[in-house]
Amino acid sequence: MTSRRSLQLILNRIKISERVRCFGTVTEGVASPTASSRHLIDLEHDYSAHNYHPVPVVFSHGKGSAIWDPEGRKYLDFLSAYSAVNQGHCHPKIMKALIEQAQTLTLSSRAFYNDKFPVFAEYITKLFGYDMVLPMNTGAEGVETAIKLARKWGHEKKRIPKDEAIIVSCCGCFHGRTMGAISMSCDNEATRGFWPLLPGQLKVDFGDEAALKKVFEEKGERIAGFLFEPIQGEAGVIVPPDGYLKSVRELCTKHNILMIADEIQSGLARSGRMLACDWEGVRPDVVILGKALGGGVIPVSAVLADKDVMLCIQPGEHGSTFGGNALASAVAIASLQVIQDEKLAERSAEMGEELRRLLTKIQQKFPEIVMEIRGKGLFNAVELISKSLFPATAYDLCIKLKERGILAKPTHNATVRLTPPLSISLDEIQEGAKAFHDVLEHDLPKLIKEKPKPTGPTAQNLCDRCGRELYG
User: Fold this and answer.
1) Is 219 found in the same domain as 319?
2) Which residues of the chain have pLDDT under 50?
3) What cofactors does this protein use (predicted)?
């Protein structure tokens, strides 16, 4: 009894702390009495693996689209943890679900049943119109699950011989950093030194219907699945040509190949539709969800498919200790309900249109710097002209944006992603666009003038897989 009372006291403190920290106004802008941003950054550098290159800002407090650092400085988040925070930071309904479930039950493992996962399973399958769900934790785990599922289906249902199943993916794709995911990657940083990569992979150019048709016709008997992002995120928010997704559906059906949509970033209202595939009314055979499924609170991912596909995996053949845990299930239900109740897909479409309108005006003012504005909903990117930035890069511009109170992240050397929470206000959209304008007008000329030019040989950005320079 004593230990249970102690645990209850701790949870009550957490509940009170979260209510004050996330929902109250008294702490907003108040500096943390503990460590400084500089000290925390140094600690991470000294004690954590150097597998990221973060923009130097420390998150201490978040609410909606806003972030505060330990010193009390406020920023607008225009990255949303790569779409994991679509609903906004510390959404009160999601936090309520988290806290209430944490006080009751967190984990059973799938060795037993719990009273939350079955409810979540029914809810998510009915919402998206599939027979079954396989729960995991991270997006990368969801991708690995889909690869295994496709291979097993290919062997059992399509009668592909042992060791001959092929997964087709796209140049420029990003599906995570596990071995299966990087085996489909064109990113040299993700693949170099980690050989041998997983066999059974073929690549086509994203958006190229003719290339997909050709590979299906030549090797379709051994192809189990076509795994793709409906909008490529890490490649720079690349939107395929109109009609491409419909063509993919038709080709996959014709050649009996699983159409597998990685909607981890593009899904859950990010693009202005619940799924990015909804823009063309296309139903994939397999859908992978993650990121915003956990509401920015806890990792939750899910693979959706019908019984004909999903039941190819039998007990003991795949699983996860934490997949489908009670805490994640409760949070995921709340996260999906918030997206529906607050009409975040519609809001994303509306706010995204306004953001692109403002960015297009900036492009018209700086045509020698801004090459292209692209995106759907609040899934957007600005591609800049590399030679106009040199020796600066998109990362340098993101540092300057941070100094102006806007948090964004580049992808490759000349593209800046702008993907704020879907709950962002019109005023905040305008504030972000103005900061981007001011960086180009005032900060970039100084960067170009003051940043030292590289003196040694520069590495060519050629893809190890196909030998092409894919990104500027």
Assistant:
1) yes
2) 1-4, 6-7, 9-11, 13-32, 470-472
3) pyridoxal 5'-phosphate
Q: What is the pLDDT of residues 355-391, one digit of tens each?
A: 999 999 999 999 999 999 999 999 999 999 999 999 9
Marked catalytic residue, from 187, 262, 396, 443: 262
Of the candidates 342, 375, 409, which is a domain's last residue? 342
Does the active-site annotation cover 77?
A: no
Number of domains in the chain: 2
226 classed as catalytic: no
CA 356-357-359 angle, to 5 degrees, is 60
Q: Considering the domain boundaries, does residue 467 fall inside one?
A: no
Label the pairing between strands 415-418 and 409-411: antiparallel
Q: Which helix (H) or strand (E) holds 406?
A: strand 406-407
288 and 427, same domain (yes or no): no
Active-site residue (options: 152, 203, 291, 402): 291
In a domain, 172, yes or no: yes
- Asked if residue 350 and residue 334 are part of one domain, the reply reads no
| 54 domain-assigned | no
Q: What 8-state DSSP symbol labels residue 291?
A: G
Q: Kindly report, residue by residue over 425-450, the tens digit of the pLDDT.
A: 999 999 999 999 999 999 999 999 99
Q: 369 lies in which domain range?
A: 345-450
Model's pTM, two decimal places?
A: 0.91
- From the candidates 117, 128, 174, 226, which is the catalytic residue? 174
Gap between the terminal Cα atoms of the chain: 63
pLDDT (0 to 100) of residue 464: 75
Clarify whether residues 366 and 282 are in a common domain: no
In a domain, 186, yes or no: yes
Is 262 marked active-site? yes
In a 10 Å sphere around its CB, with 0-12 CB exposed, 13-18 middle and 19+ buried, how is residue 351 labelled? Answer: buried
Q: What is the pLDDT of residue 461?
A: 64
What pLDDT is stored for residue 180 in this prediction?
Answer: 92
